[in-house]
Amino acid sequence: MVRLTSDFECGNGKSIQQLGDCRFRLEVDGDKQDGYCVYFCFEVINEGPETEVTVEVCEDSQFGGPTAFPTPMSTRECGRWWA
Fold this sequence. Notes:
Number of helices: 0
Number of domains: 1
Structural class: mainly beta
Strand order of the largest sheet: 1-4-6
Order of helices and strands: EEEEEE
């Protein structure tokens, strides 16, 4: 079973949705003043056999428009991996 969380010190992600067995989506929790949404940190926990996991990282919907991600980015660039 694969799980995704940002519920730890310095974690940054909200509205986590599981879209499939190994596919997730989360929103970056943007800066409350200007919506700056570049920093994200989450943990992928795999309690089963090794598998590929896809995580869609989206901007904070609270701010209603693009604030930091001009193009999609690979989640291989950042994250806490425990798979």
